[in-house]
Amino acid sequence: MQFVKLGLFASLAASALVAATPVQAQVTLKVWSIDGNDRPGIADTFSKEFDEANDDIVVEYRYIPFDELVNETLRAFATGNAPDIVSFDNPDFALFSSRGAMLDITDRVANSEIIGKAEYFQGPLNSVTWDGKLYGVPKYTDTIGIFYNKDLMAAAGLTEPPTTWAEVAEYAEKLTDPANNVYGVTFSARAGEEGTFQFLPIIQMSGGDANKVNTEGAAEVLDLWKTIIDNGWASRDVLSLGQWDSTGVFNSGNAAMAVSGPWEIDRMLEDADFDWGVALLPTITEGGERSSALGGFNWGIMASTQHPDEAFRLLEYYVSQEDRLFPEFGNLPARGDIELPATGIEKKDAALKVFQEQLQYAQPRGPHPEWQKISKAIYDAMQQALTGQMSAMDALNQAQATIDTIY
Amino acid sequence: MSRILNALRDGVGFDILLVGAALIFLLALAGAPLLYNVLMSFQQVDMFTLGALFRPFVGFDNYVAVVRQPEFWLVTRNTFIFVFGSMAGQFVLGFALALFFAQRFPGAATIRGLFLVSWVMPGLVVGAIWSWILAGDFGVLNVILKTFGIIDTNIFWKSDPNFSIWAVVIANIWLGLAFNMLLLSVGLAAIPRDLYEAAELDGANAFQRFWTITLPMMRSTIGAVLSLGLIGTLQQFDLFPALTEGGPANTSNVAGFWSWQLSFQLYDFAKGATVSVMMFLLVLFASVVYVRSTRHEVRG
Fold first, then answer.
1. Closest approach of chain B CAs to the CA of A10, in angstroms?
2. Mean of the pLDDT values across residues B257-266?
3. How does the average pLDDT of chain A come out, rounded?
4. Averaged over B60-88, what is the pLDDT?
5. Smallest Cα distance from A383 to chain B, Å
6. A3-7, A24-28, A108-112: which is most confident
7. A145-149 and A27-33: which strand pairing?
8. Mutation choice for A interface testing from B47, B141, B262 by most A CBs within 10 A
9. pLDDT of the residue at A24
10. Do B160 and A236 touch (CB under 8 A)?
């Protein structure tokens, strides 16, 4: 009896609550990303704007550190507390889309007036595609090229940046100046994702890809890299330096060339007191096939969402604001139809133009749900060859054997 | 009923209650995860079944797969170098410092206190600092070695496969030195002075006094320091991401870091668990040796 009374009372109270809320029920969308920790980023800024502009939708944004994003989302998805929208680093995306954790938005995008599939660069688009279906949209992108110190080049009698890897080696020899602590070139061949990020484009240029790494061309360039390191034209520490530290050596004038990406431009303007430029990533043969690394993040709606329509509206809002990505946040949009406004800084504008062009050749890592294992096979092989533990071809063959068990 | 209550209040029951509470606590917080870990090493674990307890059993497949990994023997070799190199360095240098500061000279206690700094600092910070010290081109260590004429060309500690594991060992020795020194200092202080005075009167020299008095009296302290050192070294994780990430080409990868890499970087949780079970066997072996070596003291 007592229970029935309580139940009645509770249901009365509940209906009173429902009656008190506006006719239009509010929908809460949870968004997770790595933005907005130390300074305003894309995800937190746009989410807040959308939240304020729409009375029927509440957006709850949560910042998650880069290293914890995948683990945290996995755990949340397994226990049914996943966010509605999440953004991942592009090689991590396939892990989720291939297992049905992301919402298939192929049809929604086809009917959308705001999101157009055709405008995106092929590489970023591939990273959100799985099995021919679209599971997300690119958020922003980046890639790598080769920076060069124009003053040192001029002093060595060189006028044009290198276009092939053989030329990089040749230039590096001329530019190396041990007396003044200057290395010819610097790059990152670290035991980690950054190592793969810089080496995978070489494999792709040689006609291979993440599923076919033991190509003649890749072994040839690895041998060149080894020569460069063994002869002291590059520091042996490229094997343990990340890209940010490696480019720091360039900025301080201790390396004449550096392989890195557009995220370095602002710091370079501040730190480098010499004239510099950037060129497309060198190819294996003169005029040979181009490739470049593809970085950046993607947006996706998780399959467990209760509000797919509202989530897609939010996604459309993010996409509609993409012309603000570069001026406000310094990130490159992953599409070719947005004109980047000139900044008025000559070096920066010139560099951006090169990176915009380079993006057309950028290819994603994977996509594959077990990308991290493939990546480890690749950077392990690269390091085994560069340290002389194995010949380049043997190391790549061993990586291929590992990769064959994954693909 | 009252008999049970009485037994609880004073007597065996109370003892059992106290011990039982501690045991349950230990089983729940250490035993259960340990068993779960062992269980996982015999299962096929999928990314999305991580939370489940019942998964397909695969027998020893994970163990076979781990041993067949091309880097397995390299990691095993590195683990032994890292563990015994670090322990030997920490112990010998720690003992030497403890003996030195046991001498009475002005400021001895203060300077000994300063060594605590290395113990208080987080591993990641120590790793970052040593990362600069060990840098190949502009690192302090190379400059010092060059100044003293020990080397002609720079040693690339972190990037040369011959040195990379030693780079982590050096940093770890520095990190664990203070802890060893402190424990050993306490042991030294507990040795009665008059033993030394008597030995001196009998004409024993410094080395004889060390060998016949200090070492035997320190036996249990040394056992504790070494076994704690083994556990601490196997646990060491922070230095690896800060210094080498196990590279180049796994030449500085050890079991602990590898297990983390497999689980949380490659999302191969079964293999990560398998490696940690293998490590556990090593610790178990060391604990048995330690317990056996100190058994007579308990009886005496």
1. 35
2. 89
3. 89
4. 93
5. 5
6. A108-112
7. unpaired
8. B47
9. 59
10. yes
Q: Which two tokens stand for residue A12?
A: 């009365």
DSSP B106-146: TTHHHHHHHTHHHHHS-HHHHHHHHHHHT-TTT-HHHHHHH
Structure tokens at A287: 């005029």
- What residues of A are in contact with residue B70 (Cβ under 8 Å)? 398, 402
Closest CA to B274 of B255, B290, B291: B255
**Is the pLDDT score of B43 beyond 80?**
yes
pLDDT band at B1 (very low <50, low <70, confident <90, very high): low
Expressed in angstroms, the distance from the first to the final Cα of chain A is: 63
In the structure encoding, which two tokens stand for residue A397, read together? 């063959």
Crossing angle of helices A308-320 and A42-53, in 10° steps, is 120
pLDDT-derived band of residue A201, with 50, 70 and 90 as boundaries?
very high
Contacts of A164 (CB under 8 A, 6+ apart): A282, A283, A284, A285, A286, A288
Q: Which residues of A fall within a CB distance of 8 Å from B50?
A: 74-75, 78
Size of interface A-B (CB pairs under 8 A): 86
Residues of A in Cβ contact (< 8 Å) with B244 = 191, 240
Q: Which two tokens stand for residue B247?
A: 């590279």
Give the model's pLDDT for residue B91: 95
Nearest to A101 by CA among A115, A117, A82: A82
Flag whether residue B267 sits within 8 Å of chain A, measured between CB atoms: yes
pTM (global) more than 0.90: no
Judge if ipTM > 0.90. no
Q: What is the pLDDT of residue A336?
A: 84
Coil, strand or helix: which one is B88? Answer: helix
C-beta atoms of B48 and A95 within 8 A: no
Tens-digit pLDDT profile for residues A115-124: 988 899 888 8
Taking CB atoms and an 8 Å cutoff, what residues of chain A touch B261? 376
Cα-based distances in Å from B244 to B40, B75, B82, B238, B241: 29, 14, 14, 11, 6
What lies within 8 Å, CB to CB, of A258 at 6+ separation is A146, A147, A148, A185, A186, A187, A246, A247, A249, A250
Chain A CB within 8 Å of residue B10 CB: no
pLDDT, tens digit (0-9, with 9 covering 90-100), for A122-132? 888 988 999 99
Task: Say if the Cβ atoms of B156 and A237 lie within 8 Å.
Answer: yes
A88 - beta bridge partners? A298
In terms of Cα–Cα distance, which of B235, B91, B79, B262 is closest to B165?
B79
- Closest chain A C-alpha to B249 CA, distance in angstroms: 5
Q: How does residue B120 score in pLDDT terms, banded at 50, 70 and 90?
A: confident
Give phi and psi for B215, each to the nearest 5. -60, -50
Rounded CA separation A150/B170 (Å): 40
Distance separating alpha carbons of residues B128 and B131, to the nearest angstrom: 5
Contact across the interface for B247 and A384, Cβ inside 8 Å:
no
State whether A372 and B265 contact (CB < 8 Å): yes
